[in-house]
Amino acid sequence: MSHPIAVILGPTAVGKTDIAIKLAKKINGEIISADSMQAYKGMTIISRRPRPAERKGIPHHLLGFLEPSCEYSAALFSKMAAFRIKKIIKKGKIPIITGGSGLYARALIDGIFPSKGKSEKIRKRLAGLAAKNGNLFLYGMLQKIDPLSAEKIHPNDMRRVIRALEIYELEKKTKTSLGEKTKGIKDEYEIKIFGLNMTRDALYERINKRTDCMFQEGAVKEVKRLLGKKLSITARKAIGITQIEGYLKQRYDTEKAKELLKRDTRRFAKRQLTWFRADKRIRWLDIGKMGEKRVLDIMASRLTGM
RNA sequence: GGGGAGAUGGCGGAGCAGUCAAACGCACCAGACUGUAAAUCUGGCGACUUCGGUCUGCGUAGGUGCGAAUCCUACUCUCCCCA
Q: CA quadruple A10, A83, A231, A215: dihedral positive or negative?
């Protein structure tokens, strides 16, 4: 028999955290965060990581455990999360995975192909080639090596072109051939994926409010502290850092920083929605229309069959 | 009261007679995505469209000219300087 696992996805600010905690109470679950930024220490405010008091006694995993100087990745997340899932199930509880990092969630659910990781050296060299000979030059290289993945990548998407080339150098196999043999938790457990959503207007409204809130809570101070430390490439990308950095460097005032933060968060939410929409397994629940209670009831009944 | 500058699509802002439905940026919409993913990249963005085009458009009203967002006249409004 396979154990049920809940996955709650959705754009930033829809209220995933809150629902996850309530669901955990209802069905005796523990929460695993699939969030690339809430994982970092010292990033409480800008990542809106739930504070211990807000967790209502529900155990949360993979929150605030990583030093900002360290890099996080879909692979690391999925390895750690898979391990936590086993432990939670052993305790007789239901794992609830929630977060907005779509790639991380997918890596866990569907698996991520084994890879030696990355090589800054290779990346640098390839990026240099692109700078010198143009994007199309690198893209041409990829077309020769791995035409199938080249077809899926836009010639200007250097990040991906470089990664695909890097994979080939590192593994001596193409990304395409590696991608075929992945195994995720979907092959072991009974996964129920839920998507939380609301009207775009309502979501944007929440994002705006939340951003104002972040400033009241001391986002500027937090970013100042973070900037004083060494930040990994991944940690540095958290929304809030560059926007507030501009204010700290007196390039603009705090109102402008807020505006930028709101804008970039809205854009992020939109991208998340695009990503999640592509996954047809997601059962979408409109929290604005249905209300919290119904959403929770539906989730619980799908998980426990009650 | 006198002198000067300007009014462009949701906003900012180019264009200064034809190749202009009008650069670029922003906002917004849509999409792609497997080790940087809160990242990276792509497309759309006046209206209508049988996707070939068609129509309406650059403050308002006229005029010149084969042709105007671009030139002329009047008007309206805005800004700046001197009183």
A: positive
